[in-house]
Structures are given as C-alpha cells and as structure tokens.
Amino acid sequence: xxxxxxxxxxxxxxxxxxxxxxxxxxGLAATFxxxxxxxxxxHYTFGAxxxxxxASSPVRRVVGPMIGGALAGLGWWxxxxxxxxxxxxxxxxxxxxxxxxxxxxxxxxxxxxxxSGASLGRxxxxxxxxxxxxxxxxxWLGRLTTRDREILLACAAGAGLxxxxxxxxxxxxxxxxxxxxxWHPRALGAALVTSSLAVAVCSAATHxxxxxxxxxxxxxxELTGQALILAPLAVVVxxxxxxxxxxxxxxxxxxxxxxxxxxxxAGLVMGICSHWWPELPGNGRSILTVGLASGLTxxxxxxxxxxxxxxxxxxxxxxxxxxxxxxxxxxxxxAGSLLALTIxxxxxxxxxxxxxxxxxxxxxxxxxxxxxxxxxxFVWELARPxxxxxxxxxxxxxGAHGLKLLVSGNGATHxx
Length: 416
Fold this sequence. Notes:
By secondary structure, this protein is mainly α. Helix content is 74%, strand content 0%. The protein has helices at 5-42, 49-55, 58-82, 88-93, 100-115, 124-137, 146-165, 168-179, 185-206, 222-226, 230-248, 259-274, 285-292, 298-317, 325-347, 353-369, 372-383, 389-415. Helix 7 (146-165) packs antiparallel against helix 8 (168-179). The radius of gyration is 21 Å and the shape is globular. It starts with a helix and ends with a helix.
C-alpha cells in the first residue's frame, strides 16, 4: 500500500529545515577555520586578508603559502590513497552515495589551502561539507524519494555557498539553476528556505553584512547601456578562463607524494607574486575590494588580469582542489577595471570604475557558469549597491551570455 503523499511532504519539509540549519553550521565552521588559517599564515589579528598580506614581512609572504600548500598536499596524499573524493555536482546528479567523511576532510584541506593564500575559491568547502552534513542529518527520514534527496543535497550545496558570502537569493538560485537546472516550485522553494536559514545561522560570523563595501557615489542610468560594451571582453575572458582551467585540471586526481612538493611550489610562486601584488593571495575578494575602492592602476589591473587565472591554473595543476566561482569573479572584476581605466585614460571620460568592475565580474561569471540571472544577483548581493544597479549587472551578464551563445552557434554552424 502506497504511503500518503502528505506524510512524505512533512518529511520533506523537516528535511529542508534540517539541511538549512546544518548548511549554516558548515558555513560557520568553514569561515572560522579560514580566518584562523589566514591570521596564522600572515600573522595578523584584525581586518581582511589584503591588510594582513600587505602588513606581513616579505619572508612570511613566501614561506606561509609554501608551508600551507605542503600541509594540504600531505593531507590529500593521505586521504586520496585511502578514499575516493568524487566531484560534488556529478555525485548529486547521478544520485550516488555521499562519501561524508572524505568530503568533510577534503573540505577542511581546501580551507587550509585557500586560507594560506592559494588562488582558489573558498566556496567549494562549505558546499561539500554542507552536503555531507545534510545527507547525514536527513538519513533517518525514510519516506523521501531519490528525487527529494537530490533536491536536498543540491540545496545544501547552494545554502553553504549562500552562508559564507551572506547571499541568500544567490545561494538559492545556485541550487535551483546551477545544480538542478530547474525552476520547479518544489525545488526553488526548498532552495530559498535552506539558503535563508543557512545565512541566518552563519550571520554569527558574517553579521549579515555584504562582504564588499560599496562606495557612495552619484551614478547615471547611462551605465546600463554602457555595460553592453563589456560583453565582448567578458566573453573572451570567460572563454579563456574556462579553457585554461580545463587544460590545467589533471585528467586523473593526483594521489602520489608529488602533491606535497607540487602544492608547496605553487605556494612559493604565489608568495613571490604577492610581493608586488598583495591582492593576488586568496579566493579573489582582495581584488574585488581594491576594484571597488578604485585602487588599481592600469598596470596593476593588467597584471592581475593575467596572473589571477594563471595562478589558479597552477594550483589546479599541482593537484589542489577548490572553488572556481570567485577566481573567475575576480578575473572579471580585473577585466572591468582595466577597461574602465583604459577608456578613462585614453578618452578623458569618467566611467565609474567600481560599477564597471562589478559589471565585468558579472559578465565573466555568466560566461563561465552559463546563468546570467544568477551571476548578476550574486554580484549584486556581494556588495548590495543601489538596487537599480542590478539592471547594469544583468545587462552585462545577459549581453555576455547572449554573445557567447551567438558565437558558439555560429561556430557550430560553420563547423557543420
């Protein structure tokens, strides 16, 4: 005899609440550990990573990331020899069993690597840890279907992302649009509830404040039209970023002792580069911060645009694991800043650098992730500027995504 659907819906609602709360715990844990590792690596107490890197000694800038990379490599060598660490998105989509312990340990090693200065995103760790905790916390609910569990795990991943960046709407849309690729009310509603709960729990660390400080400035609605000029640049940068990461990622997950010297060497290169560009270490928040503060010179923007993706590729090639969202976001922000500075210098105009920087970030993120609506909302929530600027970011993101589809379609037609 079939079980009443109402009972399954009650179980599903209970699971949604549990997943949201546990995702918030995962976000809290990842945030606190990350901050501890950053402070230990660069020997500072208060402020953001950029201030810590800038105030640290030249020796510490080099040695800190190198030691962090070596320790992370040692941990991955021990973990990968004994357990499989499958990709998050593929595991959820295929509805395979969740490796709770290996995902949790892997998430901790990701935080260690990123906190010590690696050019990788920190969002991968809380997504993974939240999914592991969510699977554990809802295992006792026996009336859930396999589709219900797929939705819950995707919601856990998106809620973990939303928690660490205090972006509840973007976290929910990440679950629905990036992980599940659906607008179904059941999935979207569950994603909104879990992401909101996770952000509320993690507000103990984030204080529910945007991670970026938006400068007060008089802005013109003409920026919405000007954002379209970013589309070709965003397509080129996003396409190049994706191709570079695909080429850098090893065909098979590295499991040998080579992980230790390889990641230590990548940390050494990062430390040397940070001597001239202290914005480079970490997931990319420092680049976004400087871009919003109009603190980049033309030469610095060009150097960061080239080095950030190259360093990210270097850590991937060395066997490291981490998120790709914020490195691509930072690369797009550097491209936007470079464009604004170039036009302002050459034509004597006064393009608003912070807006163009974030619009560039939205455009590149739309290209790399294939979801312009999610990219524009994510960028807006990171800084929470005036609401109408969402139209600017959406224009840049949709323009870049549309141009990408147009170019891909023409390429496919030509090759056919």
